Amino acid sequence: MEAIISAIKDAFLGSWSLQLVLVSILLSLVWPTFKYYAKMTAILFVSFMVLVIPIPLFLIKPRWPLNALISGIVACEFIRWLGVEYEIRGTEHINVKNGGVVLLNHQSAIDIVLLSRLLRDFRNIVPVVKKELFYAFPFGIGSYLVGVVFIDRKNTASAKDVMNRESIAINRDNLKLAIFPEGTRHDKDTLLPFKKGSFH
């Protein structure tokens, strides 16, 4: 018995990652704010990893929206395992058979979870995001390889050109562009004024 206790003690004292996990669990039990931020960090980390680890697989067929399907399923299951609850409203208005534009309310950085769920349920959904995210290495490369559309919000002509090209893919490939028309995060119950790009 002493040998077992000694082995556990040595494993705990020698492993900073195990110590970090145990301290995080204890803090989560006594401090709800810590629990919230720990879950948020875990969600962002997993969302990052499910786009980065499979990059070699994405290279087989780059820019294919279904590349993100397995990543989306993994992210959804992880969120469910964490016990995070969220609600997606209005999916009954999404035409499953045809392409189109899906407008979303951008509430937080974890909206990638919402996109994962929509991708899992409707398949050909491609987010439209600000071009700055492309330079978030290696997340930007993973995003590019799963077909994410990057636009320059400061250059209207360039953004229109990109949207015109994507409108062809909407019709040809039955793609659904997922656009956050408010243009920025907003966590209130009311909506901000919509940018015009989603209606171009």
From TrEMBL:
EC class name: transferase
Domain Phospholipid/glycerol acyltransferase: 100-200
A GO molecular function held by the record: 1-acylglycerol-3-phosphate O-acyltransferase activity
UniProt keyword list: Acyltransferase, Membrane, Transferase, Transmembrane, Transmembrane helix
GO cellular component, one term: endoplasmic reticulum
CDD domains linked: LPLAT_AGPAT-like
E.C. no: 2.3.1.51
Pathway: Phospholipid metabolism; CDP-diacylglycerol biosynthesis; CDP-diacylglycerol from sn-glycerol 3-phosphate: step 2/3
TM ranges: 12-31, 37-59, 133-151
InterPro entries attached to this UniProt entry: Plipid/glycerol_acylTrfase
Alphabetized SMART domains for the sequence: PlsC
Pfam families registered for this protein in UniProt: Acyltransferase
A GO biological process held by the record: phosphatidic acid biosynthetic process
Protein name (database record): 1-acylglycerol-3-phosphate O-acyltransferase
